[in-house]
Amino acid sequence: MSVEIQPIEIGGHLVGSHETPLVIAEVSGNHNGSLDRALEIIEAIASSGAQAVKFQTYTADTLTLDASGPQFRIRSGHELWGGRTLHDLYEEAHTPWEWHATMFERARSLGLIPFSSPFDPTAIELLESLDCPVYKIASAEMVDLPLIREVASTGKPMIISTGMATLGEIDAALTTARDGGCRDMVLLACTASYPADPGDARLLSVPTLREAFGIHVGLSDHTPGIGVSVAAVALGAVAVEKHVTLQRAEGGVDSDFSLEPNELASLVRETAAARLAVGPPRFGPTEAERDTLALRRSLYVVEDVRAGDKVTQFNVRSIRPSGGLATKFIEVVLGRTFVTDVQRGTPLTWELI
């Protein structure tokens, strides 16, 4: 039997198996180099009903080297970024540090939880100055145990993405976070490919990780559309993270696997519906089914009859609504005799025959 995991609080929102799923909208590089566009995306996220907006805090130089060797290039056949150097890609995608205060302020003014993924200690220092309420560890960084320890020392909740990770690596990351001072954590199941194929989502990892580590689990989803995220919530995911842009057709480093605002709104609605739908098993009619229960078929007198008439297939039938004898008794009552006059439309009872 699975152990009940208590909800945790992230930015004033409860996150847990019985709570509305936390929908995290990732801006990433979809600002396309414009602060105004970043703010417009934040406003669209707030209008969608999502609860949180996430950024990434790095520069190209804090993340990699300005080098062109093969190991510093995306493979040439990559669907989105083939042949680009890491430094060039991160230079285009990074969010300038001087934008952060404005973005955090705008998000908070709209009721969103703003937070970020730091990639080095200087990023943590910046985010702490902005009172970042929660931190995200990206999939590629979850093996950077010194970074995890530094983030954990803030005492803030942590969301740790597990793309590419073995169970041993996940265990090491969680142990490091706990030893570093973090008490509230959420793991995100993740397929770290961009875009990701739904067939690679392996969503049964959501309940598996929950049982293995006794921790809340969500999904970082890079597949097209919202179907995979909704399915993850049905399997117990407490949070879903999706990249968001204004219009995919406008391009950008992440646009191909990002949702547009109307799709994000659908994600919010459908994941909330999925959470409500996954209740404990029960059988028999619910209170909500009461009206329909009255429409079950039963045996009715369908022609006017007189006392002494035989019950036949022509004067008694199985019809809607309920109220008469159960339909299983039709063979029992056929051939019996009515003991009184009965009007058409009367439910058949034992007292009438």
UniProtKB/TrEMBL annotation:
CDD domains xrefs: SAF_NeuB_like
A Pfam family: NeuB
Main EC class the enzyme belongs to: transferase
EC number from the UniProt entry: 2.5.1.56
Single GO molecular function: N-acetylneuraminate synthase activity
PANTHER family in the record: N-ACETYLNEURAMINATE SYNTHASE, PSEUDAMINIC ACID SYNTHASE
Protein name: N-acetylneuraminate synthase
Organism this protein belongs to: Intrasporangium calvum (strain ATCC 23552 / DSM 43043 / JCM 3097 / NBRC 12989 / NCIMB 10167 / NRRL B-3866 / 7 KIP)
